[in-house]
Structures are given as structure tokens and as C-alpha cells.
């Protein structure tokens, strides 16, 4: 004998055409299981993923490397700037010294011959100093007898080349000059080329030539 179960509410047999969704709606447990499947799938895929985070020790190491690099760059730039400043200072000192030596060389007065020539000797060295000193014995009587007076009205200097120990300077000089036969000063123009060398803390002339 075959027994058939009917729905109490409707008194009809369950139809084979009823959709699974309708059965799931009537069965809360089945619907809960079906609905919870898809949202859990992405989370299951992320369970093995780890986010990299630097350790404090690594951070300190990177910081130290960056600091050392910054210090090295600063030191290099600082030394370069310091060297450039030294060269600029040396060029300026050589230019000023060359100009003053040229002025002292051209300046001469019969009344102060010894003092005038001593300045030039003190500012010279090497071959020029020896050559200049050797001419003074013959030059002094001529200057004294002619009552020669030579002064400098204007002097302009330019640096040809140079470094911290040597330099070449060109100096143009306008020198009013008078003597016994020409009491009214005549302006004379000279162009001098000086080779300078650093002796201790002072620049001195080692070669001096008249140039056109």
C-alpha cells in the first residue's frame, strides 16, 4: 500500500515543478546555507596574504645611510665652494699686489731715492731683485743730478692668469714726470707685465718687463 503525504496547509501534493528557490524560501536552514557561500569566497582567498612592514632596525639602517649620503654631498659641495673662494681671494690679492708694486716701481723722487727703491727691493724676489739692486748704484747719481720726480696719477691692473702660488698681471700706469730740464710734469704712460710668486704670506715680483 502506497502512502502519499499532502501539505497540511493546502491539502495538495508537492509538485515536481516547484523551483528550488521556492523550497529554499520555505526551508530557512537551506536558504541560510546557500546565501552564506558566495561572500565567504573572497575572504578565503585572502587568508594567505601578508602585508610587508619594515622593521624598526631596517628603518634605522635606512636613516643612517641617508644621513651619511647627505653629509658626504654637503662636505663635497662645501670643499668645492671653499676651494673656489680661496682661488678667488688669491687672484684678488695678486692683482692688488701687482698694481701696488708697479706703482712703487714707477714712483721715484731724487729727494727720497733710497726709500723709494727700498720699497721695490722689499717687494721683489729672484732674478728681478738681483737685477734691480745691481742698477741702483748707477741710477742714483742720474736721478739726483737731474732732480727727477715721477709720480703715478692712475694705475689699472688686470689678471692674466694665476693660482694660489703664482700669477701674471698687466698694469697700465699714467705717470706725470718732471726733471731739471722739464720742470712742468709730462704725463708718461707705461704698460708693465709682472710675474708674481707667493713668498710666505706676501706676493712678490720675480719678473718685470715693459710691454707695448
TrEMBL record:
<keyword id="KW-0812">Transmembrane</keyword>
<feature type="compositionally biased region" description="Basic and acidic residues">
    <location>
        <begin position="20"/>
        <end position="32"/>
    </location>
</feature>
<keyword id="KW-0472">Membrane</keyword>
<dbReference type="GO" id="GO:0016020">
    <property type="term" value="C:membrane"/>
</dbReference>
<feature type="transmembrane region" description="Helical">
    <location>
        <begin position="58"/>
        <end position="77"/>
    </location>
</feature>
<protein>
    <recommendedName>
        <fullName>Mce-associated membrane protein</fullName>
    </recommendedName>
</protein>
<feature type="region of interest" description="Disordered">
    <location>
        <begin position="1"/>
        <end position="48"/>
    </location>
</feature>
<feature type="compositionally biased region" description="Polar residues">
    <location>
        <begin position="1"/>
        <end position="19"/>
    </location>
</feature>
<keyword id="KW-1133">Transmembrane helix</keyword>
